[in-house]
Amino acid sequence: FWPIVDVRDVADALLLLYNKAGRHERYICSLDQMDLKELLEIMKSMYPSYSYADKCHIVSTSC
């Protein structure tokens, strides 16, 4: 599986973030919409040795 994006979409996303994002904010550009719990499960399966528990409360209290 190789994700393919239109460079114009990437440029639009960068311009949007340049104008709106704070210095320490992070964003994910994605075709599909998913909730934080689903995203964390995917990340945990990809990076099982990373410590997520101490960072989860910063993003959401439902983790």
From TrEMBL:
It comes from the Eukaryota. This is Thioester reductase (TE) domain-containing protein.
